[in-house]
Write a structure and sequence with these properties.
This protein has 8 helices and 7 strands, in the order αβαβαβββαββαααα. It is of the alpha+beta class. It folds into 2 domains: 115 residues, Beta Polymerase, domain 2; 61 residues.
């Protein structure tokens, strides 16, 4: 997948509409020094842009694989354009997440906005809660985020507790 080209295309669409966005998933983890293989581009956007963004991607040749209020997945038949996964946030979550973005060098040296590590952790905890089969990979990513000295562990613990997964948080801490 040509991450930079796909990111540029979507960013231009969102920026033209003054819609906030950030990179999440494997590319965001890489920005924080957590190396892992990723084959798709994951973005978080405000939920208010969902309909327009899905139409834009479909007009660009992407097929929508799944869509809900909180997520959508899109696949292009050309491998260079690959798969794009979107997370939709709203309300206070959207306001806080986009107000606290950090900027890093990303694909092809392009500057990318990335949520705080605590917000990435919140998304990973939510993913584990929604689909327990993802727990193994999410736990590895969460461990890497929690190992960072600048992460507010109490905030992350709160995300685990909110989803009834406090024991998972304790499991991770026991390995650090």
């Amino acid at each position: 997948m040509q991450f930079a080209a796909v990111l540029d295309q979507i960013a231009q669409f969102l920026d033209a509409r003054r819609q906030p966005w950030a990179v999440v998933g494997g590319v965001a983890l890489a920005a924080y020094g957590v190396a892992r293989t990723t084959l798709d581009l994951d973005l978080v956007v405000d939920a208010g842009v969902q309909d327009d963004l899905v139409r834009f991607l479909e007009a660009a040749g992407y097929r929508t694989l799944y869509r809900s209020a909180g997520y959508s997945n899109h696949l292009h038949p050309e491998p260079d354009r690959g798969r794009v996964d979107l997370v939709y946030v709203r309300g206070e979550t959207s306001r806080r997440l986009f107000a606290e973005l950090r900027r890093f060098k990303g694909p092809a040296g392009r500057e990318i906005p990335v949520p705080r590590p605590e917000h990435l952790a919140a998304m990973k905890v939510q993913a584990m809660h929604d689909d327990p089969s993802r727990s193994f990979q999410e736990m590895a990513d969460l461990r890497a985020l929690l190992a960072r000295p600048d992460v507010d562990r109490a905030e992350v613990r709160g995300y685990f507790e909110r989803h009834g997964l406090r024991e998972r948080f304790d499991e991770i801490l026991a390995t650090l």
